[in-house]
Amino acid sequence: MSDEAERNADSEGVTTGEALAAAERRLASAGVESPRVDAELLAGKALGATRTALYTDPGRELSAEEAAELGRLVERRAAREPLAYVLGEWGFRRLTLAVDRRVLVPRPETEVVVERCLELLRGLEAPTVLDVGTGSGAIALAIADEHPGARVTAIDVSSGALEVARANALAGGLDVDFEQYDVRDGLEGAFDLVVSNPPYVTAEEIEALEPEVRDWEPRIATVGEEHTAVIAQAASRALVPDGHLVLEVADGRAAEVCALLRRLGYGDVRNVRDLTGRDRVVEGRWSSAR
Ligand SMILES: C[S@@+](CC[C@H](N)C(=O)[O-])C[C@H]1O[C@@H](n2cnc3c(N)ncnc32)[C@H](O)[C@@H]1O
Fold first, then answer.
1. Does ligand 1 lie within 6 Å of residue 156's CB atom?
2. 162 CA to middle of ligand 1, Å?
3. Average pLDDT rounded to a whole number, residues 6-28
4. For residues 215 and 197, what is the distance between their CA atoms, to the nearest angstrom?
């Protein structure tokens, strides 16, 4: 245990309010972007309390075990481990997904990807869907959850990610067919929709990103320059006529990916803004006539 963690563990007798303030200071000094919110969520986990309860009873004294647990969680976060890994779970649309170092933390922009998929699948009673690079299972599971007739297959090259995704499916009572597969070996099938949030950060870009991404999230999930093109090409052999491809793209690369899809023969190519107004989703329709 580090000196700081030991000091935290010694904080038996401190009140919730004092523990929160100390945790916030520690996280701020470690450069965490939102130290107060993180401190509240970590305290909530350590004390088994909601954030509201922390405020309604700020004078409640922590037991030795609670203080030690909070100290451990705060030190993990101060080492810039992503909040989601420290909490062990993260919200994605209507789901709460288990997450750890084997998978990318699901992002808000990926919720927009799911939104587009649901829109494109609307009116199809039992559409077939393929999620390429499923990670925690976020996209596949959210589609299965929100379009109950959908028959969803999800692939990932990482066996660790698939373990997490399968556990999330089981926990959520959702039926998705998971398979370990490398998309570079090509795709085949007759899917109504192929969706992917592929690795799209360059090897140079990753070094400039925040420690949470650079040092903790799996490189296989973040770094990849050719994946978008490989998936767009492979999907054309796996889509039914008029089936759709939906891709999450890097900030600033939507126009490039739209041009790629057009070159490959996709029609109705367009990009969709995320919640902050950035073009982060590109979609196209595959027509066998092209
Ligand atoms: C950016 S993460 C997306 C995870 C999840 N779909 C999400 O949106 O939160 C990319 C995923 O693609 C997987 N992946 C990387 N290379 C792959 C490949 N060649 N074939 C299949 N999956 C791959 C990674 O293991 C990782 O889980």
1. yes
2. 10
3. 82
4. 20
